[in-house]
DNA sequence: CTGCTCGTTGAAAGCGCTTTCGCTCACCGC
DNA sequence: GCGGTGAGCGAAAGCGCTTTCAACGAGCAG
């Protein structure tokens, strides 16, 4: 049997109330008994039972993060920021990872169980009506990261604006025909980046050409956010212009770095030099992007994670406050794939 | 106030004992009341309080996984296997990620708290004397993955043998001088792979040359398992032979794929063609390896995760059983960096 | 010396659940 | 008609902790 508060109360000749006070840093305990209790507790290897604690207090001091982990880098960075934001607070972070987007609901269910945690961080989890219903029924504080809903605090990156910046960068470099590779239809980032693409075209007074746009139809469980999907999408795009090379896009905006890696490979296999024959811009700035010299839009992942926990803590303090929405602007990072200078890898 | 078992007992005109029985699938409940209770519970949105449950039962039905550096594909795959191994069991997986190797102890402390979980999966966590002490003091079941200790169940890959296979592959390809790039000194995989390197040299009747071996001295918090560490290590290696090109190694075994990526970049920057001027073999077979055509040693990550949970469950059933140790043999995957055929990316 | 205050402690009432024990009430065979 | 059986259920005792309330005694002013 594990040692309980009673055992150490007996040994230290105090009541369990006092032991509890010692461990909760209650001010009204004499220095004497405090030390005695600590000594006994240490000797007996006491450790409070978290279940009993969360029952007696009405809180767990835990924050759950539900994350679909496909390209782990983005999530890890966000989680890193979240961990940091929790430092110095009484809260700990618990992670419910899901390998696929569809597995998210199961993990969400677990995280939502009463007594599991006080707050919920949803990263890249689209707030479907069903999920919104479940989230509203819970008493936990909820913060959305990388997606938004008016009912909850949220932190997002302005994907649309980023898409526009990406395409404008390509237009400025003189490209007449700019392709676009997207994940499977219906994702929030995908839709937004597509809109940004159109914005840039419109601002430049150009007509959109559907032939220049390819949506992924592979790896649906990962929403097409894969190297392979990017690889195939690029092949499809190039195939479309196999018989009319003059029309071929000379630049491509790929909606996610991970897809861009596959796209680059397909381009190389097709004998295209990047840059030169083809310029490529990605989105996300994952760790391998710097290494591969990919021009992309950088998302402030660590900052997003950190801010997320700050919002969470604020909401835990004041559940009634109106939801707040923060939108970060992504930053264009020019590297080799659009003629930038090569840099030594740092990671 | 959240709805408790009492509320639904009132509403359904039964005792709380019956409600509890319904939710625990106790056989001695009439079909009638079972349905009634379920209906009421659903209507009121009841959900058991996990803390109270774990207090009353003596178990949480949770398994904690403590993993350093989830940036790495390796951990994700292991976790995927672990999730799979838990499917159909009453256990859920909880993840305590740590960005650095040193952060592991803090996470371990949290996971070890009484009432957090029933079992512990330690992935790539070296069993230091201090950790062993803590792990032996806990009543949780413990399984080590990617490291071993005689006191606990463990699952490892034979790194030494893998290192030998890697180097023998290079020797067979006719290389006289084979370099070795290692993480920071003192890691279990690093030491083992170094031993395998020596094994292969000895078997071929060659003298080891310390000039051919470089240990990382960068990114200590990640034990040098980074692109950058590999990049710099390769530079150091090449620098050593800048004034005597004839002695330069024509092949390099890099102790981790992630380091190999950096090493490849350094090689390219030095104007070396791979393969041709330099052959490279990595270790791990992470997702980007196939994409970059890196010859490497594949570890059965998913299988390891799955087996880990199986051992965990077995141990939970029978805490007294003697520890069992499983060693997987890594499999050589020949790709472009040692002259293998190019393959289309699948991920 | 009396009456207070204040720092320190203990008793006890929960927190929400599981589970043992035992009761009640058919239903059975004899 | 009677004891025996077993299905279905409730009462109540925990599980290990927090927190309120009250008690106690020492120290202080009057």
From TrEMBL, chains A, B:
InterPro entries: HTH_LacI, LacI/GalR-like_sensor, Lambda_DNA-bd_dom_sf, Peripla_BP_I. Residues 3-57 form the HTH lacI-type domain. GO terms for molecular function: DNA binding. SMART domains: HTH_LACI. Keywords: DNA-binding, Transcription, Transcription regulation. PROSITE patterns: HTH_LACI_2. It holds the Pfam family Peripla_BP_3. Coiled coil: none annotated. This is LacI family DNA-binding transcriptional regulator.
């Amino acid at each position: 049997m594990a040692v309980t508060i009673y055992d150490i109360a007996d040994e230290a000749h105090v009541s369990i109330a006092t032991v509890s006070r010692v461990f909760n840093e209650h001010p009204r305990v004499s220095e004497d008994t405090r030390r005695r209790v600590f000594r006994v507790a240490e000797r007996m290897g006491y450790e409070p039972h978290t279940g009993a604690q969360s029952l007696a207090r009405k809180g767990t001091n835990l924050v759950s993060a539900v994350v679909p982990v496909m390209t782990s880098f983005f999530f890890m960075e966000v989680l890193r920021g979240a961990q940091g934001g929790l430092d110095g607070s009484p809260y700990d972070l618990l992670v419910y990872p899901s390998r696929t987007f569809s597995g998210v609901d199961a993990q969400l269910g677990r995280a939502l169980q009463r007594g599991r945690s006080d707050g919920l961080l949803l990263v890249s989890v689209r707030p479907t009506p069903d999920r919104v219903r479940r989230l509203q029924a819970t008493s936990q504080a909820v913060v959305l990261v990388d997606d938004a809903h008016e009912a909850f605090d949220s932190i997002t990156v302005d994907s649309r604006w980023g898409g526009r910046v990406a395409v404008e960068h390509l237009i400025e470099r003189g490209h007449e025909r700019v392709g676009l590779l997207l994940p499977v239809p219906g994702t929030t980032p995908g839709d937004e980046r597509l809109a940004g693409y159109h914005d840039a075209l419109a601002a430049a007074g150009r007509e959109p050409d559907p032939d220049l746009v390819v949506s992924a139809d592979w790896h649906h469980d990962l929403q097409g956010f894969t190297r392979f999907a990017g690889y195939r999408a690029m092949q499809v795009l190039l195939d479309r212009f196999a018989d009319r090379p003059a029309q071929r896009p000379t630049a491509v905006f790929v909606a996610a770095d991970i897809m861009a890696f596959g796209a680059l490979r397909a381009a190389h296999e097709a004998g295209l030099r990047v840059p030169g024959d083809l310029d490529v811009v990605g989105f996300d700035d994952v760790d391998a992007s710097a290494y591969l010299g990919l021009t992309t839009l950088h998302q402030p992942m660590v900052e997003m994670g950190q801010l997320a926990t700050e919002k969470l803590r604020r909401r835990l303090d004041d559940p009634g406050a109106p939801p707040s929405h923060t939108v970060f602007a992504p930053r264009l990072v020019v590297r080799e794939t659009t003629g930038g200078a090569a840099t030594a890898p740092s990671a």
